Amino acid sequence: MHHFHYRDGTLHAEAVPLTTIAEAVGTPCYVYSSATLTRHVRAFADAFADLDARICFAMKANGNKAVLRLVTGLGAGVDVVSGGELALALAAGAPADRIVFSGVGKTEAELGAALQAGVHQINVESEPELEALDAVAQHLGVRAPVAIRVNPDVDAATHAKITTGKAENKFGIEWTSARAVFRRARTMDGIALKGVALHIGSQILDLAPFEAAFLRVRDLVALLRADGVAVERLDLGGGLGVPYHAGDETPPPPTAYAEVVRRTVGDLGCALTIEPGRAIAGNAGVLLSRVIYLKEGITRAFAIVDAAMNDLMRPALYDAWHDIRPVRAPSAGTETRLLDVVGPVCESGDTFARDRTLPPLVAGDLVAFMTAGAYGAVMANQYNGRPLVPEVLVDGDRFHVVRRRPSLDDLAALEDLPPWLLREWPCPRR
Ligand SMILES: Cc1ncc(COP(=O)(O)O)c(C=O)c1O
Ligand SMILES: N[C@@H](CCCC[NH3+])C(=O)O
Question: Which fold has domain 4-31+283-422?
Fold first, then answer.
């Protein structure tokens, strides 16, 4: 069952009408479904159950502490990419030995913090980083558990801004120098070389690029072993896509992805890590928003909503599509119309949709931007003096505010904001 569904003409998150959440919390706000998150983590765990694999949720997709607590409570680990994410994962109760630290520009301070926390693995992306990590580890008197991220030079066939495994991308060590770097790492006293890591991109809907990349890594493992390098671990990254259009073909499920893993690298005797982010969180969240005005222009009609590009950047940044559903289902036979759905920010790019077929929305109507659980709230900012929006986690017929709307006191830099901006004044017309 999809956990965002219509019941009695109203869009619900599990058993909670989104109208109830909007009234209690105000809009815009993010709403997450515990049931969907749970189902997705379990789907990966079940698909990989016969493989020696750990699932490390890429928290860059959704760093809400309650979401992290839920996901790690189901046994998953976490893939972090900064000292901030590391601190947040630990604060959410993620055991350090289930944390993998990725990222192309980790500072010495971040590397030191990861070593002191005792993380499972640090994925090193360049020779200078390897040298820095060696020095930090020796200074701390430890050996850093390292996987070296290689760039397999495979086209992930996804949006150009989110492909990471092509030679021209900044990520990983070039394929041609990989062997030399491994040989070098083996001689370093601060480095405990564990294996190979890769990640080819995000929102990947075709398994062929994964297959090609994993086969390349398989070849590399054979070469490394011939060089006398022990390869005990393989970190295959994340990247499995999700459906953003209701009518789309469904992307390959975790079982099909696991089958590719099994077929390509399953017999290498390596402990595996996968780092799904979007596939776990994407369809577990919506951004709930209210129409402020309907503006009938001469050539187009605009639904101006209270969410904006600062709350959900994906349409402005990648021209990404998010389905938009009215929270009150239109009655049968209601004619649709074409609307541009835009936010209040002073940029023409603050456009969620152009010429979208929607029921005739009016001011005050609630709409949900679907599939906003990944790369939604985490990428939000306060552009145009708009405070970050609350986040709500639904669990059956209950919901919890898991990130509250900042109060006047929280916004030290904006402390003179009037209360109405923070929704502390009830709107007289509602
Ligand atoms: C190293 C690494 N691991 C995991 C992920 C998560 O990717 P996705 O959300 O597409 O699963 C990313 C982001 O693309 C990444 O850079
Ligand atoms: N933020 C991107 C994905 C980047 C993936 C992180 N490496 C998105 O919304 O699709």
Answer: Lyase, Ornithine Decarboxylase; Chain A, domain 1 (2.40.37)
378 close to ligand 2 (CB < 6 Angstrom): no
**pLDDT at position 11, please?**
98
Catalytic-residue membership of 346: yes
Ligand nearest to the CA of 376: 2
Counting Cβ atoms within 10 Å, is residue 357 exposed (0-12), middle (13-18) or buried (19+)? Answer: exposed
Question: Which one of 56, 270, 346, 427 is the catalytic residue?
Answer: 346
Model pLDDT, residue 154? 85
Q: How remote is the CA of residue 122 from the centroid of ligand 1, in Å?
A: 15
Write the residue with the smallest CA distance to atom 16 of ligand 1: 199
Q: Give per-residue pLDDT as tens, 191-200.
A: 999 999 999 9
pTM for the whole thing?
0.94
* Known binding positions for substrate: 278, 314, 318, 347, 375
Transcribe 82-140 into DSSP letters.
SHHHHHHHHHTT--GGGEEE--TT--HHHHHHHHHHT-SEEEE-SHHHHHHHHHHHHHH
| pLDDT tens figures, 316-353 | 999 999 999 999 999 999 999 999 999 999 999 999 99
CATH architecture of the domain 103-274 equals Alpha-Beta Barrel (3.20)
Q: Where in the chain is the domain with CATH 2.40.37.10?
A: 4-31+283-422
CB of 375 within 6 A of ligand 2: the answer is yes
